[in-house]
Amino acid sequence: MASRRPSSSCRFLALCPLLLLVVLALSPSAGANGVFKVRHKFLGRKPSVGDLLDHDSRRHSRILSSVDLPIGGLGLPTSTGLYFAEIGIGSPSKKYYVQVDTGSDILWVNCISCKRCPQKSDLGVELTLYDPRESVSGSLVSCNENFCVSTYGDIPGCVANLPCEYRVVYGDGSSTAGFFVTDFVQYNQVSSDHQTKPVNASVTFGCGAQQSGDLGSSNEALDGILGFGQSNSSMISQLAASGTARKIFAHCLDTINGGGIFVIGHVVQPKVKTTPLVPDQPHYNVNMKAIEVGGAILELPTDLFDIGDKKGTIIDSGTTLSYLPELAYKAVMNAIFSKYPDLKFYNNQGFLCFEHSGSVDDGFPEVVFHFENSLLLNVYPHDYLFENRDNIYCVGWQNGGLQSKDGRDMFLLGDMRSF
């Protein structure tokens, strides 16, 4: 079999071939777009297979569990994020490094008055505490302002100038609490000649005054979280409401250099295909229709792609691996390795591994996920098989029935880079 590789370096398992685009909703105005360059937290070091599962376990304990989040959606502590970006906040603008997260609904950064905020990070970035008093464009959001009322409704005891407070409690008991402020957020915008320039937009975000659990002690700490969630409180929703950008975002994560870009607004080049989101879901869910392995469609029951009240397939840039329902997992694995009956497998920290010499692209089949609107996600052997050490390869697919916290199967497609 001839080696088949994607046409660009952007080849992460779940998101890039959905090709860069997640459509939230179409706003009437075209608007401009914003670009955020992102870095991967594992950049410069090769994680063990245990690191990958440990990362996903911590993340899924939050995004797949019950939370107390009055503003809607799911925010995630820093240690569960894979990608982070640099943004500017305030006037004059200061640098902040924030986790870029499709599972979170607000932008928040650690505040100058923060208790138990991390003072340093092992990710090679300098942490900064936001001080609204040092920014001439910053202002506190009161409990009777439209943003607060639309987020929480009428707040008992609200009087003028009383701060609009937020609190997020996660499934593992860690939390963030503080108050909302409005200030300029600086990011890059693509001009008509395909050059980028810094622009400012007024955004309401959280000023974290108290952190607990992993948020106050993580060695992989950042200044905060930039949520790309669907709630009206998210930054992308605010930019769309002000006419600054269309309510569309795209992301392409670079497997080779360990980074990539997130784009807010319409993507002109390259041309992309889209698939609609499943409505009324807390995550970004899409409709998977079929799975193809080596050119053959697997015989799977159609209701497998909609399990209970969990409709569709979760797309999550913060998860390293891909999780399939047990029935689909076994069918995919059998189809991939049907031509290798003598291959000897062994378990390595929860991964199925085997010895193989030569390029995996020359012997193993391509897997294709079929989504609504005839969108195809091509997954190449070097995407789902990663080399753990010399000539030892492990399978990136995981049995979702074994991993799901509530014991139910799930489709969850993550980053699954080739490290």
TrEMBL record:
Q: Which GO terms describe its biological process?
A: proteolysis
Q: What is this protein called?
A: Peptidase A1 domain-containing protein
Q: Family membership, please give it.
A: Belongs to the peptidase A1 family.
- Example of a GO MF term: aspartic-type endopeptidase activity
The UniProt entry, under Pfam families, shows:
TAXi_C, TAXi_N
Q: What range(s) does the Peptidase A1 domain occupy? A: 83-419
Q: Where is the signal peptide?
A: 1-32
- Which cysteines does the record link by disulfide bonds? C353-C394
- Report which superkingdom the organism of origin falls in: Eukaryota
Return the InterPro entries for the record. Answer: Aspartic_peptidase_A1 (IPR001461), Pepsin-like_plant (IPR034161), PEPTIDASE_A1 (IPR033121), Peptidase_aspartic_dom_sf (IPR021109), TAXi_C (IPR032799), TAXi_N (IPR032861)
Q: Tell me which residues this entry annotates as catalytic.
A: D101, D316
- Which keywords does this chain's UniProt record carry? Aspartyl protease, Disulfide bond, Glycoprotein, Hydrolase, Protease, Signal
